[in-house]
Specification:
The protein is of the alpha/beta class and 329 residues long. It has two domains: 118 residues, Rossmann fold; 174 residues, Dihydrodipicolinate Reductase, domain 2, CATH 3.30.360.10. 37% of the residues lie in helices and 24% in strands. The strands form two sheets. It has a seven-stranded mixed β-sheet with strand order 12-11-7-10-9-8-13. A six-stranded parallel β-sheet has the order 3-2-1-4-5-6, with helices on both faces. Helix 1 links the parallel strand 1 and strand 2. The mean pLDDT is 93. Bound molecules: nicotinamide-adenine-dinucleotide (NAD). Nicotinamide-adenine-dinucleotide binds next to helix 1. The site of nicotinamide-adenine-dinucleotide (NAD) has 26 residues, from helix 1.
């Protein structure tokens, strides 16, 4: 049985807490949030303890796994605190705000001998797992070019932290990091990143990025993302190989839609990708981690996978700022 504490009681904290509460080999034992009311509200739902300070929580409650669901720029502080206390760590994507922080996170967790699991949930979306398996089994021959897009409404986090682009990294880091990780899973190492986007444009509640990745294998991927859709989440994928084309669109079951901005409506919260299957990919992802901790096996997503996804996102932001392609070391 893994005893779990969730840090951050917002959209993802609630999603993760709900998953652990339903898992037979996990027990949610505490919730921590700088806003004690938010922590208390979530803790009350599962009759567990609420804390505003992670160190008090770690000294007062017996915990095996700390699950970090706070704004991205705060992840590194919680990774350090949990590793120092010898706790295993699950951390929402992006693993950290910067590559330097991600390198530090990987190093300190290795030194502390604790598991660091970057929550790259796309690998647990069955359609993305199936596409991955088809691609690596050679279903379209040798992959040549890939195109992905991921579009959603502007995320409205607590105190609108996503709108602080320096802290969230905007769409080029925060959202299409899902695709960077999935593409690396399919095609391996990325050697060069070139990007265009609105990252420093200061257009209120809108962001867009088009990122071109060149892989060591020669594959080129165009990764597009926006926070400009007033309605739900849309993701598409095309992978062309020497033997054919694989394509996917999350809208295929709904060929025509019209979405209108609600007049005067300020919706709080973040639109998260939905899956057509009944078991939430977030549940499947966390169940995988808990099972790995129970059996002492290595999770499918490594700390280095989390680091490399941040490295690509940071290179994309640098490329947007400088107009130059960025070679990855
Ligand atoms: N995997 C996904 O699909 C997905 C979707 C949305 C967000 N995310 C990621 O999850 C993380 C959290 O995003 P969210 O949408 O849940 O945000 P949110 O704003 O809904 O929730 C964040 C919570 O953290 C609390 N908080 C803020 N600063 C804190 C601090 N220093 N210490 C402790 N608590 C603090 C806030 O009070 C809030 O309750 C981000 O890294 C985000 O990029 C992932």
């Amino acid at each position: 049985m893994q005893r779990v504490a969730v840090v951050g009681a917002g959209t993802m904290g609630r999603t993760h807490a709900d998953a652990y509460a339903r898992m037979p080999n996990a027990e949610l034992v505490a919730v921590c949030d700088v806003k004690i009311d938010a922590a208390q509200q979530l803790a009350d739902k599962y009759s567990v303890r609420a804390f505003a300070d992670v160190r008090s929580m770690l000294s007062e409650v017996d915990v095996d796994l700390v699950d970090i669901c706070t704004p991205t720029h705060t992840h590194i502080d919680y990774i350090k605190a949990a590793a120092a206390a010898g706790k295993h760590i699950c951390c929402e994507k992006p693993l950290t705000r910067t590559t330097g922080q991600a390198m530090e996170a990987v190093r300190i967790c290795e030194e502390a001998g604790v598991v660091l699991f970057p929550a790259q949930v796309l690998r647990w979306f069955p359609e993305f797992r199936k596409m991955h398996d088809l691609i690596v089994s050679g279903a379209v021959g040798t992959p040549v070019v890939a195109r992905t897009s991921r579009c959603s409404a502007y995320p409205r986090g607590t105190d609108d932290w996503f709108a602080d682009m320096k802290n969230s990294g905007g769409v080029a880091l925060d959202m299409i990091i899902h695709d960077y990780d999935w593409l690396r899973w399919c095609f391996g190492k990325v050697k060069r990143v070139y990007a265009r986007g609105l990252y420093e444009s200061n257009i209120p509640l809108t962001d867009y990025a088009l990122v071109t990745l060149r892989f060591d294998s020669g594959v080129i991927a165009h990764v597009e993302g926006n926070w400009a859709r007033p309605g739900g989440f849309v993701a598409t994928v095309e992978v062309a190989g020497t033997d054919g084309l694989l394509s996917y669109s999350s809208t295929d079951a709904v060929p025509l839609t019209i979405e209108l901005k609600a007049k005067g409506e300020e919706k709080v919260g973040v639109t998260v990708p939905e899956s057509p299957v009944s078991q939430s990919p977030y549940y499947l992802e966390l169940e995988h981690l808990v099972n790995c901790l129970e059996t002492g096996t290595k999770p499918e997503v490594s700390p280095e996978d989390g680091l490399e996804a941040v490295r690509i996102g940071e290179a994309a932001l640098k490329s947007i700022s400088t107009g130059q392609p960025i070679a990855l070391a």
